[in-house]
Amino acid sequence: MMHLEDNIYDGDLLKEHEISGASHVISPSGQSNPSIPKGTKKITIDWLWDSIKLQKQLPTKMYKPD
């Protein structure tokens, strides 16, 4: 789980019990987690790595798990 501030390249990795504060959750394809809060963006690990490589927060549209 992660919390990323909008429009900046910054964030924190959160512990499982801090999931309510997450803005983005790395979610493997085909897995669902009912504890993920509504409105939290589910993304693949590729989104995280690509954002780090490009040093900016990328749009999540192309990184949604199946």
Describe this structure in words.
- Strands 1-2 form a two-stranded antiparallel ribbon. A two-stranded parallel sheet has the order 3-4.
- 12% of the residues are buried.
- The protein has one helix spanning 45-54; strands at 2-4, 11-13, 24-26, 41-43.
- The longest helix is centred in the C-terminal third of the chain and has 10 residues, at 45-54.
- The two termini are 18 Å apart.
- The protein is an alpha+beta fold.
- The mean pLDDT is 80.
- This is DNA ligase 3 BRCT domain-containing protein.
- Residues 9-53 form the DNA ligase 3 BRCT domain.
- It comes from Caerostris extrusa (Bark spider).
- Pfam families: LIG3_BRCT.
Care to give the gist of this entry?
The protein is α+β, with helices and mostly antiparallel strands and 66 residues long.
Give the ordered list of helices and strands.
EEEEH
Distance between the termini: 18 Å
β-strand percent reads 15-25%
Helix content: 10-25%
- Coarse structural class: alpha+beta
The total count of helices amounts to: 1
Q: Biggest sheet: strands, sense, closure?
A: 2 strands, antiparallel
Report the strand count: 4
Report the mean per-residue pLDDT as an integer: 80
| Poorly predicted runs | none
Task: Give the helix/strand layout.
Blueprint: E1 2-4, E2 11-13, E3 24-26, E4 41-43, H1 45-54
Parallel strand pairs: 3-4
Antiparallel strand pairs: 1-2
Key structural traits:
single chain; 66 residues; alpha+beta; two-stranded antiparallel ribbon; two-stranded parallel ribbon; 4 strands; 15% helix; 18% strand
